[in-house]
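Now for a chain:

_____
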Amino acid sequence: MRPQALAKAHSIERLEAEPVNAARARKPLYEKRRKIFPKRAQGRFRRFKWLVMLVTLGIYYLTPWIRWERGDHAPDQAVLVDLAARRFYFFFIEIWPQEFFFVAGLLVMAGFGLFLVTSAVGRAWCGYACPQTVWVDLFLVVEHFIEGDRNDRMRLDAGPWTFDKLGKRLAKHAIWLVIGVATGGAWIFYFADAPVLLKSFVTFEAPPVAYFTVGILTATTYVFGGLMREQVCTYMCPWPRIQATMLDENSLVVTYNDWRGEPRSRHAKKAAAAGEIVGDCVDCNACVAVCPMGIDIRDGQQLECITCALCIDACDGVMDKLGRERGLISYATLSDYAANMALATNNGTAAIDPRRVRGTDGAFVDKVRHFDWRIIFRTRVLVYFAAWALMGLGLGVALASRDRLELNVLHDRNPQYVVESDGSVRNGYMVKLLNMIPEPRTITLVVDGMPSARMRIAGQAPGDGRRFAISVDPDKVTPLKVFVTLPRENLAEADAGFTLVADDPSSHERDLYQANFNRPLPER
């Protein structure tokens, strides 16, 4: 280290922060939870987390209140899961129950998107956008505002119960419960018209299931975000145990670069004066103090690490004070880390000596490998992206080209046919016309095939017996009882069956159903 850096290192405050799962003290079985009091971090990753938290919470809480005009025959809530009408509305998109494959496709896309992000930049989902992470961040904001930063909270927790402590704890938990209620309340607004449901909810006229749902989500938000916190990620979430299969040696993960940080020393100035080898790490524990999971990234990669990168912000702040390069803790790939470790250890034949990675001027030598954005665009990531994009393209094409008219036909089972007094044979069908647009229209129902057959629809004018104009309501299913009759002398036509055609001349949409016509077996 340069002399001025050594002097600054001597003045760096060392935080008394002990990781909750240090390898040297880890027990083989579950032990009682030790409270974590994360220190407020400052830096670019912390600012990015603030941004993600504001965006995600804003989307969650505000989306049910966005209006979207769909006419007089459909709800005007932009995003709505209408269980009563069995519809899912998303702005200009309307999904019917038989179109659930669109939702399934989106879930598959979300899975591939998670694989894509993890392969490229590690557990970025866990560190920034996971609901557990976002709500824990929100709860910590409340805790920090009421009880103070890390040292203040630790003193308050260890101190005796006073009116001040009781007041702060009651205020904190009360706000946490309010957040829980708001979380549960926002969720139920996705399943009914938000303004109407809010009015009925506060006047105690809402359905019991609404209060039950809010109660359950309030409890889970309060317990998971306020009380359990990192325990949810460590013990309840399966993703830390799965995500390792998504990573390779070129995936970005939060890494302590011990090839430049070791040997660490709290008294770098004295160690350098004594001729000892000194790395950049001054063992200030800043990285441990800010970690919401309570781990020490210097112990290496750990299941508990959610790669939120707050330790990078903390360490960069210390490096700035020391006048050293940022990146002692950084996003790095295993391949880059291994190459730099080989350089610092003389290909593994000696202990780490940070002097091997620096020139006489103190700058890193050219052989030191640094992060390159191009590593993200490697084959594995591109394959994931291609699969994800193709699924999205397929869903988009299917969504854009789908017809909004559908015909469902069910043949009567008992009886399968009726022989009339003149020998004619009649078959009955339950026909459903699905008008999947919020506008009324007239659908033409036609019998195609069996030229001698005549069709009759209960409640409809006779027409010519082959073609009927049916008025259908907007965004509704119109059930029809249809009878098709074939004269006795033309029963042979039944062998080929017929096609029932639903056609909308105004939109040129049509749907077909190939129907069977049952009749008595011919006598031999």
In short: DSSP finds 17 helices and 14 strands in the chain.
